[in-house]
Design a protein that fits this description.
5 strands, Bacterial polysaccharide co-polymerase-like, 259 residues, alpha+beta, 61% helix, five-stranded antiparallel sheet, elongated
Amino acid sequence: MEFREYWNIIWKRGWIILVVAVVAAVVAFGVSQILPKKYRATIQLNVEPARPDYGLNQATKDLLRNYVVNVRSRNMTQDAIDRAQLDMNPDQFLNDLDVSVDASNLTITFVTESRDPDVAILMAQTLAEVFVEDRDIWNEKIDVRDRIYVSIVDNVAYAPLASPKWKINTLAGAVFGAIAGGVIVFFLEWLQSDIVRTPADVQKALGISVLGTIPATGQAATSTTARRLPAWIEPGFLLVFAIGLTIGAALGGLIVALL
């Protein structure tokens, strides 16, 4: 297919791609506004061996994974809930908690989410304080040279909006809607690929040159025009277009759910 044919297709049916993309973007934006907002609080802990010893340093790295298990225990989360007087149980707390470690710089990061930014901050800050106190109590039982200290790098200052991210959702909805619109255009062109409309179509189908055409008479042209409906309101076209809009809207909603 020549570039001119692609251009003609885009010129004739490009609005379909645009409409489906806009519909998907609007749906993604609308769903983003309806979904409940969740805020995310992050706090980082520094893990430091008592002395610059290679063996103790390696032991510290190995203990980081065990620290994650301790933090995500029901006992520790219950202590944080009691201290902060949160209206939740340990299972709810753990569902909104993510704990990660970085052995390269010996840090632990707590990430909590909540529909209330103040609650998200309180969850992260209180859990960090409970864990630090637990490590301090443990250090009192061992030799000073073998201790591993845990401290809070910075207190939680604020909890930014975590989801839904309406800008990303809207953009992604528009992109995937445009893809769906492109599929619709391709399908429509495939349905009409065997229809001969112009002398160029005759030459392409038969492989022979067209020397001339017989023009339609005024009466025949008028009667033909009167009998045929415009292409944009033909039932088949409306069906495909409605399916495309549905796909675009569904993509918009799905993107919001995933993001």
